[in-house]
Amino acid sequence: MRRALSAVVTAAIAFATVAAVGAGPANAAASSSTVSASSTTEVSQASFFKGRGEYVALGDSYASGVGASVYDESSGDCLRSPKSYPRSWSRKHPKLKLKDVTCSGARIPQVRANQLSALSRRTKLVTINIGGNDAGFRTTVDACLGGTDAQCEGATALAINYSQTTLITELQSLYADIKTLAPNAKLIVLGYPYLVDGEGTGSCGDVTPNAQRRALFTKTVDAVNQGIITATTQAKVKFVEMRPAFDGHEVCTDDPWLHEVDLENVPEMFHPTDTGYRAYTRQLTKVTDRH
After folding, report:
1. First and final CA of the chain: distance in angstroms?
2. Shortest CA distance to 17 belongs to which of 73, 76, 77?
3. Which ranges of the chain does DSSP label H, i.e. alpha helix?
4. N or C terminus of the chain with fewer C-beta within 10 Å?
């Protein structure tokens, strides 16, 4: 049943977010997941990555696979899933040994502190999803689902301002460090899809954002992606656009590839479903296998 915005909603979101997602960075040093693909796995013959080496997956919950519902127990609060796009891509490209150090809740400082150590001269491919938590995706979601219009607008304004300024410089520095630590690797940066359809008439879940709040969600996602695009362009790094790939499959559509608002499963809401992660894998594969 859809519920009206209330203090109960705010409390539920805040508690579950802090307990299940916010704990990620504090435990981001959990051991990485190193995966060797089965010899029976179908291999893409057109892969640009023909030599042997390592594939290092970096980033936040969109990279670790939050939303796929199945997680490695050994990954703890990082919530790494065997259905994430790094794992799915790796199964089709077994010549590169995957080192998965992604972690739910990660921000740029946690990537630096707990993930970059996985890089080396043996690294041939690096993928990363990062920037959403730094810009305040979580704060915006909390404010726009459980707060007032003014709180939603304020959180959005802060996220947009950060994305247009600090995020760009932080990402440029991060990309430069990745290149230094993995000089033989191709770095690929993946973006974020729109969270909600501004005019969608499908179910949004337990809370249905009004048109104004949906528009603010969209502005926030656009700002974060544009900040990432600016940084990747200046760093001469490949960016993989995800907004068109999810077009028509956002929350509030009839066929969402993102988890709808679920107050009993806050950590997974607005994260890709299994189908959504397959879309991520397809977009990544288009980049790596077209050479």
Report:
1. 49
2. 77
3. 7-16, 61-64, 85-91, 108-114, 132-135, 137-146, 149-164, 166-181, 211-235, 274-288
4. N
CATH placement of domain 7-288: 3.40.50.1110
Catalytic residue among 93, 249, 259, 271: 271
The CA-atom distances, in angstroms, between 11 and each of 24, 158, 260 are 20, 22, 18
Q: How far is CA 260 from CA 85, 193, 198, 284, in A?
A: 20, 14, 14, 24
Query: Within its chain, how far is the Cα of 235 from the centroid?
Result: 20
For the segment 24-83, what is each residue's pLDDT rounded down to a tens digit?
443 444 456 554 433 333 334 344 566 689 999 999 999 999 999 999 999 999 999 999
Q: Concatenate the DSSP letters of all residues of 211-235 into one string.
A: HHHHHHHHHHHHHHHHHHHHHHHHH
**Catalytic annotation present for 259:** no
Question: pTM, whole model, 2 decimals?
Answer: 0.86
Buried-state track 83-120, b at ≥16 Cβ within 10 A, e below 16: bbbbbbbbbbbbebbbbbbbbbbbbbebbeebbbebbe
The catalytic residue among 61, 75, 84, 88 is: 61
203 is catalytic: no
For residue 14, the SS3 value is helix
